[in-house]
Amino acid sequence: MKIGILALQGAFAEHEKMLGSLGAETFEIRQKHDLRRRFDGLIIPGGESTVQGKLLAELGMLDDVKAAIEGGLPTFGTCAGLLLMAKKIENDSRAYLKTMDITAVRNAYGRQLGSFSTMAAFGSLGDIPMTFIRAPYISEAGEGVEILSEVGGRIVAARQKNMLAAAFHPELTDNTTVHRYFIDMIKNPR
Ligand code: GLN
Fold first, then answer.
1. Contact by Cβ (8 Å): 67, 44
2. Cα-Cα-Cα-Cα dihedral sign, residues 159, 15, 7, 168
3. Which of 27, 76, 129, 154 is most buried, judging by how many CB atoms fall within 10 Å of its CB?
4. Protein residue closest via CA to atom 5 of ligand 1
5. Mean pLDDT over the full length of the chain
6. 58 is catalytic
7. What are the residue ranges spanned by the domains of the chain?
8. Residues with Cβ within 6 A of ligand 1?
9. What are 112-167's pLDDT values in tens digits?
10. Per the residue annotation, which of 70, 79, 143, 150 is the catalytic one?
């Protein structure tokens, strides 16, 4: 199994490390031609959605990544990655890949609570540590979207077909539950 990690900006190295520890082979996607390689899954890391979105467009990669996801490529977006996949951002006129039927609120926890950690359930897999950094949450989820986690009554992890989105950063903890779930999505597609 080979997983491509979008490495234009943000916390991509931490995903590489975690997936490596789970025995998955990874490579960094930095340019359009990297997308021509054969790979089984895609990670869109946390960072700044506006910067990553701009770079994706400038490097001519936005349409290719969108087409790959729409073609069924298992894709996991964390934080900024969730915002890039969202079909709509409630408090921002921008939207990017628009592949996932969710509406997100950007920088949703305000300045005071910009970053925090908590424990909460991830699907049926029990409680896991969740680290939020200037995180979004999902304010609306379409019918085909399965809600996997909620914190304070707000949706923070969800799945739609081949897409997994988390508002938090599992790659910044030592808990591998979410990455193992994603590897399972690749092995057993819906
Ligand atoms: N606030 C960032 C954004 O709007 C997301 C933060 C993160 O990825 N940790 O893209």
1. no
2. positive
3. 76
4. 80
5. 97
6. no
7. 2-187
8. 46-49, 79-80, 83, 106-107, 133-135
9. 667 899 999 999 999 999 999 999 999 999 999 999 999 999 999 999 999 999 99
10. 79
Q: What is the pLDDT of residues 107-118, one digit of tens each?
A: 998 766 678 999
Share of the chain above pLDDT 70, in %: 98
Two tokens, residue 67: 């087409």
Amino acid found at 114: G
pTM score of the predicted model: 0.97
> Ligand 1: distance of its center to the CA of 15 in Å?
16
Under CATH, which number does the domain 2-187 receive? 3.40.50.880
48 is catalytic: no
Per-residue pLDDT at 85 exceeds 90: yes
CB 180: neighbour CB atoms within 10 A? Answer: 16
